[in-house]
Amino acid sequence: MAYFPTIGLEIHAELKTKSKMFCSCANNPDEKKANINICPICTAQPGTLPVINKEAVRKVIKTGLALNCRISEHSKFDRKNYFYPDLPKAYQISQYYLPFCQNGYLKINNRKIRIREIHLEEDTGKLIHPQGADYSLVDFNRAGIPLMELVTEPDIHSAKEAKKFAEELRLIFRYLDVSDANMEKGQMRCEVNISLNKDPKKLGVKVEIKNLNSFRAVEKGIDYEIERQTKMLESRKKIIQETRGWNNVKEITFSQREKEEAHDYRYFPEPDLPMIKILTR
Ligand SMILES: [Zn+2]
After folding, report:
1. Model pTM?
2. Rounded to the nearest whole angstrom, what is the distance from the C-alpha of residue 30 to the centroid of ligand 1?
């Protein structure tokens, strides 16, 4: 291969807790009726305040310990600001400055894949687009469900390795009983960052692939991008930094939008939640 792929993964997993991240609504992934598990907090009514779910914090730390991470002594939550109809507050409570877990690794085929961080945030609602309709529906049952995000360093170099990493991670999540990590139910979601360069030590222009909802899609999506970007580079076309979606039927990626930078989200410390001090024995 003339070009060397460098891959990083961002993996989201919904945590298995009784209640949501910042309110006492049920965290029930099997609820069929829309907008049942909702309250003034997770639908962002004025004057409501969040309360941290301790069990969710415990599960993220447990995962971090299993993945050889350094657990932060002090941690806090931050606001990630963006507007979208599935996000009632118009910001997501997430972690940006002091994630719970940092600098871990997972060995795949006897090679360390470094884990940059594992942080805790809340999931968004779900948009439903009825076929042929000129409107969309929104279900807030999922809004506020504790969501763990794991970010790797760009240490992966093939589609097979990425798939294997995600599969191993699912096994660990299930063994620790922190998440059911069922990809078909959206309890585990993978995003891939991929870039190509002739020099294996250098990165190229980073392209992100979203909506990879199976291990097969992770593998196929990466293989497709390697082929697409190789063709472009060989014909001296410029690759743009962007977010691409995955079409499961055609098995191709497609351009969604140009990638946002962290500063576009105007992260700032969440003023409604206290700092957290973590004591690990
Ligand atoms: Zn609620």
Report:
1. 0.94
2. 16
